[in-house]
Design brief:
alpha+beta; two-stranded antiparallel ribbon; 2 strands; 14% strand
């Protein structure tokens, strides 16, 4: 999913998602110059399986 989609699912700002990606707290990779985040990673955050983005 895109940064915007992940932000919506996580009820976070795009900036918080980007910061999580850059710090390695949220797994993702760049595809064609844009970040993509796995749906499974976002669902794990929602379920509390990994620390929340931006709360290190």
């Amino acid at each position: 999913m895109t940064v915007e989609e992940a932000a919506g699912w996580l009820r976070a700002t795009k900036g918080a998602v980007m910061a999580g990606l850059q710090r390695g707290e949220l797994p993702g990779r760049k595809v064609g110059g844009e970040w993509r985040i796995s749906t499974a990673a976002v669902l794990a955050l929602i379920r509390g399986a990994v620390p929340e983005v931006g709360t290190s």
